[in-house]
Design a protein that fits this description.
Elements (H helix, E strand, L loop, with lengths): L9 H10 L19 E6 L14 H10 L4 E3 L8 E3 L7 E5 L5 E2 L10 E7 L27 H5 L17 H11 L9 H7 L3 H11 L21 E5 L2 E7 L5 H4 L10 H7 L21 E7 L3 E6 L6 E2 L20 E2 L4 E6 L3 H9 L5 E3 L5 H4 E3 L5 E3 L1 H5 L3 E6 L2 E7 L11 H13 L2 H8 L4 E3 L23 E4 L2 E4 L2 H10 L15 E6 L4 H15 L4 E6 L2 H10 L4 E7 L6 H4 L21 H10 L6 H17 L2 E13 L3 E2 L15 E2 L1 H11 L5 H29 L1
Parallel strand pairs: 1-13, 22-23, 22-24
Antiparallel strand pairs: 2-3, 4-5, 4-6, 6-8, 7-8, 9-10, 10-13, 11-12, 14-25, 15-16, 17-25, 18-24, 18-25, 19-25, 20-21, 26-27
Helix pairs in contact: 12-14, 18-19
């Protein structure tokens, strides 16, 4: 009798191999059950640290919490310059000014007369929170999960272990409660110091909370009901109205009302999370936010995936019906008046490496992407006029490019306390102007930023009130207007200024040696060295020897605080779209050596007087005239070489609509619209099954099996004899 054969028939091997391969696209990283669903796919590169709006102040955190929390105001999605519009508020706040005796003042009163500014905010009724265990009640109306015992808490590992949920209406008290949280010492809000300067009684509230709150237990802060703490700076008027009171006049405060810091917080959330033992399981607002926005965080696994799901209790909002010229032609008003949000879910996967992120975008598994340096040449090309455009490869895929000049500035600063470069002398000023001409930031942008920037002409980037375009907006000390564009003055003109300052050919007239200037650098890595070498060469064109003093960021900051540096590069990104947020970087009383943000330690009495006037003015021709004069002063004095305004590049697939950069708003997910059917079709086209490796494997198996098959046959025949 022959033994049972251990070999499958060869046709069966092929069938099993091919059957195991699944349906295309075989490389789809998502479950088949999600096919065709209205889900937006994206990625994040750094796990968020804080999801509590009182603590969060980072872009990667705002990408999530701005979809969940709703402050009273928001930025219009389409209009430029950036315009505030109501979100949960019925209208923009009513502002009333009072003098020292509490008597009302007219809206155009001298700011020096204003002792108190009152902001009255009325929120719309009928807005409800997302489903959440903090609101769950039993049949008697008692909160189910606010008084859990130690054993029950020990069994809770995630929020899903508290299965019952509830909701309630948003009320004015929730906004006041959050403002009190800003003052709570142990929450360490990054804006507590600033708000302490403006909100009436804020510092006293902070001290009162510290004195009255119970001590921590096992390093955990138990629930302390802030509703019971009186506060003159923010008070509830009735169910839907509350008032915020500021010291003096601070018109920029209205911009803060569009940030998550001033979103509502229900006391029930703190009551739930503020039970002993909750923090050990990450049951905190930093992990599980509670909001009224269009989305809620349904999955928080920051080492793998973050999922935002549609809030079933969302109060509803409509896509804007107005925009800018060109928006309608670009299809950005096709959804005018339609209810938001358009997508059901947004799934964000952790991608720590840029290459896998980019490849998944090209395969259609992410709906949008930035453009990293590694992928820039594959995605972007520049035409003869220097304008960015897509490569043929990107166009063939129907990928679309969106660019926007950011509300940011990178500048080269001169320490105005330095005996060589600083001060008000004509000699130092001409030296600073000469250097400003010689350091060609257009070349810098081309080499080190892949062309992603616009040369700076002043402190204000585009999109900020006061910024002027065209010939009226150039810095005449560094640029000329020729052939319809700003062109940097020649090196010969820079050398002439240097000679006028007494430094012919860049030499010190006393010693006859080349001038030596010290550059404070905070990037000493490989990329940083290339930038520093470029900077040395630009100074060398004037005959100046640039000595780089590279250090880490902490040491760099220490030098800036002490005012011991000479030349440095630094940047600023707008907190809000107001010229005050940039000009304060040059305001004398705000010098870095005095604890402020004026890193150049610049001080000009006329500029400072104009700043104090301008910051309290409403936008209009009068304010523009003041801004023009301030800009002229700093161009003439040259405490900065204005560097460049960075330019953001982003790509998205043709199935994603309503994409317009909004550098102030973070809550733009609700405007995005998808065509999932087109996405599935193109994914299948771009990811065809690659059969040759399987065919090769089958061939190898067949060839490898033949000798064994022949040996087995030979043995069977020999036994048969």
């Amino acid at each position: 009798m022959s033994r049972a054969r251990r070999f499958l028939p060869l046709p069966m091997v092929v069938v099993l191999l091919l059957g195991a391969c699944g349906q295309p696209p075989w490389n789809n990283p998502y479950p088949a059950s999600q096919s065709g669903e209205n889900i937006l796919y994206g990625a994040f590169t750094e796990r968020p640290k804080h999801l509590d709006p009182v603590r969060s102040y980072s872009e990667n955190e705002y990408a999530f919490i701005a979809q969940i929390y709703e402050p009273p105001l928001q930025y219009h999605f389409l209009k430029r310059p950036y315009e505030l519009v109501p979100l949960t508020a019925r209208a923009l706040p009513e502002v009333r000014y009072l003098d020292a005796d509490g008597e009302p003042l007219p809206a155009d009163a001298d700011p020096r007369q204003v002792a108190v500014s009152e902001y009255l905010i009325e929120i719309a009724p009928g807005i409800h929170y997302q489903p959440h265990p903090a609101f769950a009640k039993d049949a008697q109306g008692v909160y189910r999960y606010h008084r859990l015992d130690a054993q029950a808490i020990a069994r809770v590992n995630t929020l899903h272990d508290l299965p019952e949920t509830g909701t309630r209406e948003l009320i004015a008290e929730d906004y006041v409660y959050q403002i009190k949280r800003l003052a709570t010492p142990w929450l360490h809000s990054p804006i507590a110091g600033l708000m302490g300067e403006h909100i009436l009684g804020f510092k006293a509230l902070r001290e009162r909370i510290a004195a009255e709150a119970p001590a921590p237990v096992d390093a955990e802060r138990l629930f302390f009901d802030l509703r019971q703490v009186p506060f003159e700076g923010a008070e509830v008027i009735d169910r839907y109205r509350y008032r915020i009171r500021l010291k003096g006049r601070y018109p920029q405060f209205v911009y803060w009302l569009a940030m998550p810091f001033f979103a509502p917080m229900p006391w029930e959330a703190e009551a739930l999370y503020g039970q002993l033992g909750m923090k050990q399981s990450n049951l905190t607002l930093d992990w599980y936010p509670v909001g009224t926005g269009p989305f809620m965080l349904s999955e928080n696994n920051p080492n793998l995936r973050m999922v935002l799901a549609r809030n079933p209790h969302f109060h509803g909002e409509r896509y804007p019906s107005e925009g800018m010229p060109g928006d309608r032609a670009a299809g950005l008003l096709a959804d005018a008046g339609q209810p938001l949000p358009f997508v059901d879910r947004a799934i964000y996967s952790l991608e720590q490496e840029s290459i896998p992120y980019w490849n998944k975008f090209l395969q259609g598994f992410y709906d949008s992407s930035g453009v990293s340096s590694d992928a820039f040449d594959q995605a972007i090309q520049f035409d003869a006029a220097g304008e960015a455009d897509l490569t043929d490869e990107m166009r063939e895929k129907g990928i679309e490019l969106v660019t926007a000049v950011q509300t940011s500035i990178w500048y080269m600063g001169f320490n105005m306390l330095d005996p060589l470069l600083g001060g008000e002398s004509e000699r130092a000023r001409l030296l600073r102007q000469a250097i400003s001409i010689a350091v060609d930031f257009d070349e810098y942008i081309s080499i080190f930023a892949n062309g992603r920037g616009v040369e700076g002409q002043g402190p204000l980037p585009p999109g900020i009130f006061g910024h002027r375009q065209g010939e009226a907006g150039i810095n005449p000390y560094v640029f000329d207007w020729r052939d319809g564009r700003a062109r940097r003055k020649s090196l010969d003109e820079a050398k002439a200024l240097l000679a006028e300052a007494g430094y012919r050919d860049g030499r010190d007239p006393d010693s006859g040696r080349p001038l030596t200037i010290y550059y404070e650098a905070m990037d000493a890595g490989p990329d940083g060295k290339a930038r520093l070498n470029w900077m040395r060469k630009r100074f060398a064109k004037l005959g100046i020897e640039l000595v780089v003093r590279a250090t880490d960021y902490n040491r760099f900051q220490e030098k800036m605080r002490k005012g011991t540096g000479q030349v440095f590069m630094w940047g600023w990104n707008a907190d809000y779209p107001d010229p005050e947020n940039f000009f304060f970087l040059l305001y004398g009383p705000n010098r870095k050596v005095d604890g402020g943000e004026n890193a150049a330690n610049y001080q000009n009495p006329e500029f400072d007087r104009l700043f104090e006037r301008m910051k309290n003015m409403d936008d209009g021709p009068e304010r523009q005239a003041v801004i023009d004069r301030m800009t002229e002063i700093v161009r003439h004095d040259a405490p900065w070489s204005f560097g460049f305004y960075p330019k953001a590049f982003s790509l998205h697939h043709q199935w994603l609509d309503n994409v317009k950069p909004n550098l102030m708003a973070n809550n733009t997910l609700k405007y995005r619209r998808l065509d999932p059917a087109l996405r599935e079709q193109l994914r299948a086209r771009w990811n065809p099954p690659v059969l040759w490796p399987i065919a090769a494997l089958v061939a190898i198996l067949i060839l490898g099996a033949i000798p064994a098959f022949l040996v087995a046959r030979r043995r069977e025949r020999s036994r048969a004899r």
